[in-house]
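Example 3.2
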Amino acid sequence: MPRAKDLDTVAPDDIINSTPKSPLPPRPIKKLQNKKIKHLHQPSNEKSHSTQFRQNIYGILGKTKHPFSSFLVKPKVFNFRERDTDEEIILVLRRHWITNLTWILITISMIIGPILLTTVPLLESFPPAYQFISIIFWYLITFIYSFEQLLSWYFNVYIITDERVIDIDFNNLLSKNFSEAKISMIQDVTSTIIGVSQTFFNFGNIQIQTAAEVPEITFEKVPNPEIIIKVLGQLRQEEELENIEGRVK
């Protein structure tokens, strides 16, 4: 059996004291680091104010279910060329759908017209080829008229973003008129609802007086005028708060 090397130096009656090393005290967590972490997770007053205004605005507006609506809230598929990178589209407006009823009835009358004309004996004197060409030409005019009216309704829009109000008018496919005014430049907003149809279907005109180059922007025959005025009021309050806090873009 091997002999230990230290048996000659240690007596049997000697008490061997083995004092374990005391563990190192735990390092205190730096308070500064905690403060930094807390600061990173805590939203700033600027963001909280903007979030509160957005919640109020979208609470007033509600939601839109389909892209062909005349009252588009925060559209996902809509965009325009003059939009800034960080600009948020809040509302896109078109003329109320009931305003399309006039040209829709005219289109239906133009479609039925050739059928009614076949009962006129005078047309029977024309050769069948001329009658066929005349009907094709008539329906071509009908299609062009109805298609232009539809495009005019769809592309003539009024846009409200977090920074400005915009009026885009397409007179035809080759003519476009773009007008804008900053939210901070808005001085007064009024609405006008005239007639039984506008009162019943709740649509009308909104006049926006501005201090910009364009003195007035008019939203014509748009739905829910009172809601639009409330939204513009919220945006003006947010803009005033940004001016006070020095957060103007």
